[in-house]
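Subject: Predicted fold for Sulfate transporter, 494 residues

User T.R. writes:
Posting the sequence so we have a shared reference for the thread.
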Amino acid sequence: MMRANTVPARFPHLRQDFAASLVVFLVAVPLCLGVAVASGVPAELGLVTGIVGGLVTGLMRGSSIQVSGPAAGMTVLVFEAVTEFGVAALGVIVLLAGLVQIALGALRWGRWFRAISVSVVEGMLAGIGLVIIAGQVYAAAGVEAPASGLGKIAGLPGAIVEVAGSRTALVSLAVGAGTIAVVVLWQRLPERVRAVPGALAAVVLATAATQLLGLPIATVEVDGLLGAVQPIGLDAFGRLGDVALLGTALAFALIASAESLFSAAAVDRLHDGPRTRYDQELIAQGTGNAVCGVLGALPMTAVIVRSSANVQAGAKTKASRVLHGVWLLLFAALLPATLGLIPLAALAGILVHAGWKLIPFRAVASLWRAHRGEALILVVTAVAIVAVNMFEGVLIGLALSVAKAAWDASHIRLTVVDKGVGPVQAHLSGNATFLRLPKILDTLEALPHDRPVELDLSGLHHLDHACRTALENWSERHSTLLTAPPKPAEPSTL
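User M.O. replies:
I've generated the structure tokens; pasting them so everyone works from the same file.
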């Protein structure tokens, strides 16, 4: 009896974690494969990243519930990197990104990622979603897509004409559309049926239909797990002098970190267990990416779809995400031939649906009603990612966010009291920065020039150098009595 009770005593939530791990595994399989194919690398590498996310990152401290693996949010950046540097260089880029993440976590910078504007992050995801949708429409039809995000969208009318004249392309597009329809309609079926993830059901049905009907459409190319894994060699490190490659690695690290930590914040709201320790989670993500880099696999992030499925399935500890990595490993090792039966159009359909879910339609509507400036940042970030590229688009969004914060912080009020006789009294209060200087000077210049002016700055909380200099110069020219603001207090230690 004592031996029978040992396992439940040491692992009191094993039953819930075991069941949750199976659900997460079934959710992860089609997404791992789809993200890999869309990134321009062998499908097996998506499974490798999922395995590392479970067996390496899953064992480490940080967030006990969220699940890591290849993410649709990194697809665009990875595809651009593979196109520019080749698949052989991907391992070095991912390894460097992982080392940067480990360093950031060790320096306790994880918490600072929480300060990134939510509008920028949602704009980033929206831009990625748009590029994914546009690109995967071509993949679903089995035609070649333009390289740039803007080219993908602009080329859609021509692609429609091309598809309309090809029976094979129409059949392939129909399989992709059918996959999307199954995923969407699956949520309306009875709860017992929905125990099987909709994405997995859609891929299985599409595969069965393709094989039974003998449809002439492309399927996943299979090299086997060991054949797909290409550990980085010493010659690959010779490219470390390439500034563009180093910049790409930094972009991988920053964007993967932001996505992972925002996912952690979202997952923490879904359960009552231990909260995420952001610095440790950043180190865990970096360690996983370093291992993926050594194996030449895709980068990983924490993935909100798999993480929320893990919570909803009743997971209590990290055992569920570790076990999901075990199931991925067994699947890749024992059933590799099944991958070759999956139509590429079905995986494209899964990613079109995933890309659609990345676009925060409700957030844009609510922001427009309450905070139009934030809504504008979201839209501009998304458009910049589509028009330029992901990294520069995010930088544009961050620059706009900083500029808006500076503008919002520059609240200034100029009160003029003119009693008809005696000096005109002008009182400034708030924060006087160079952003508001033109408005301040225009108002002061409009005051009567034939009467003395008393300019009171004592109500200012902040007066930057540009404003101080301009106001002193104006005061000297107009013989104004200037009351200086009080000296700032000594900063307090928090």
